[in-house]
Amino acid sequence: METLNEHQKKFSKKWKNPFLFSLYFLFNVPMGWFSGMRITEISEKKCITYLPFQWYYRWQNKNPYKSMYFAVQSMGAELSTASLATLAIKGYSESIALIVTEMSSKYFKKATGNLTFKCEEGEKIFKAVEKAVKTKKGVQTRVKTIGKMKDGTIVSEFYFTWSFKKR
To answer: Exposure of 80 by Cβ count < 10 A (0-12 exposed, 13-18 middle, 19+ buried)?
Structure first.
């Protein structure tokens, strides 16, 4: 895998900065901002997102069953794949459209604590973007992200199908 170019490095640095990330989400994705999600790690290979679940602080993330609401989990999961997709398209001067065309999820345990979502399919995303630029046709790729609590318990698994097309 190639190293990141200057635009990608700048995006990565900005996305890892809690203040800049929070400011961006406040104005562009308010529900993401309200949830308190953030990026803890991003590279061309993987992205890890964090979702808080404190009863006294993030009450809006919970459901009546004393666990994290599935839609909040979906936001954190999508962010772990979307950040990789955005990082990949930052590598090109061409305009590239990206959109989620499909999403599915599985839930294994109640999310009763802070969650991290880890997507380790950055290479797959980068290759799909490269193919879309070379062929000038739409390319789809399906990626997986796994949600875990601090103790390592897997609570959910999400699959997102991303579509990339050079405009």
So the answer is: buried
In this prediction the pTM is 0.90
Tens-place pLDDT, residues 26-51: 999 888 887 889 999 999 999 999 99
Tens of pLDDT, residue by residue over 129-156, are 999 999 999 999 999 999 999 999 999 9
Which residue, among 117, 106, 165, 116, has the nearest Cα to 141 in the 3D structure?
165
Class of domain 6-166: alpha beta
Q: 84, 158, 72, 82: which is closest to 127 by C-alpha? A: 84
Domain ranges of the chain: 6-166
Q: What are phi and psi of 102, to 5 degrees?
A: -160, 150
